[in-house]
Design brief:
By secondary structure, this protein is mainly α. It is built from five helices and no strands.
């Protein structure tokens, strides 16, 4: 969103839009955390400790990537569209790099990982973004 030269009577509307956007970002990240915890608990209870740990690690990788993306991409609430796009491209590149490094670290340092559950946890947490598109997080409790 580009900065709008708001008259004094429109400034409140811009702040409301910013609060809703922040609520949406926080809501999706909280949804990812919730999905990760549910998948981790279910896999632990149904398939054992190894599946629970692996799915939790997969969800943690997805969660860390999303938090890094949000930190980088949303540094500016408003600005020139080119600058906002550069931030999103940088955020996506950093998220991809973190994801690759995190998966590599898991495979190197935790050799007995249940890889299928690692990816199931990652995919389940990543799906929160798509569920987040269906939910309107408005910042109200």
């Amino acid at each position: 969103m580009t900065r709008i030269n708001a008259a004094p009577y429109n400034r409140g509307a811009l702040q409301a839009v910013d609060m809703v956007a922040q609520a949406q970002i926080k809501g999706v990240i909280c949804l990812k955390l919730g999905i990760t915890l549910v998948v981790m608990l279910l896999s632990y209870l149904l398939w054992g400790r190894s599946a629970g740990i692996a799915s939790g690690l997969g969800g943690a990788i997805a969660l860390a990537g999303s938090m890094l993306y949000a930190r980088i991409a949303y540094q500016l609430a408003y600005g020139p569209p080119a600058a906002l796009m550069r931030l999103h491209f940088a955020a996506e590149a950093a998220k991809m790099a973190l994801t690759i490094v995190a998966f590599a670290a898991v495979f190197v340092f935790y050799r007995q990982v249940a890889w299928m559950w690692l990816f199931i946890g990652y995919i389940a947490a990543t799906s929160a973004y798509w569920f987040g598109l269906l939910i309107q997080f408005n910042g109200k409790k």
